[in-house]
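Same chain as my last thread, 218 residues:
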Amino acid sequence: MPPKKRARVTKAGKDDDGETAGAKRKATEKTKESTESAAPPQYCHWLMKSEPESRFENGVDMKFGIKDLKAMPNQTSCWDGVRNYQARNFMRQMKDGQLAFFYHSNCKEPGIAGVIKIVKEAYVDHTQFDKKDAHFDASSKPDNPKWSMVDVQYQRMMKRYIPLSELKKYHLQHRADGGPLKDMALFTRARLSVQPLTTEEFDFILSLEEEKPFRWTK
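reply #2:
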């Protein structure tokens, strides 16, 4: 197992929409498993949120930006601490080799910082059993663990940082006129720290690297 890291989004902090949310959408955005679809759609691209700036919770710094991942041995780390059933289930769908965007959340300018790859499919998240960990879950038992994690590997930085504000402008335009970001989970399921992307959404966002920042206003 790679060295333990702190891949975090905003457990007790504020999400990009200014509302209280969960660290990697951890404990504070729990949802009931009974509300989940029995046959969820299958995805092959993802967006995974984490905090690039220091924020302490129970004495633990939740900071883990893309540069922290890049500095890890083999540029690889587990993505632990997810405490939301829907986000967990998305991780359980992930397949080795699939690509995801590394999204910086709970910071001055949230946005997409780089590309990472899933290099180990879902397995038991050990932090749920660690009483010293910020994401200890006393209700989860070793013989019936609730929470999973995956391993991710740094691939590259984006050619330019794609801020949330720019993505939102495209989302609003596409919602009005039609376009690949009209139903993007970042805006329709904003609180989730692990989100699916369609291939069309993923490819469109990659294409923005070559474009100047979007200046459209409604």
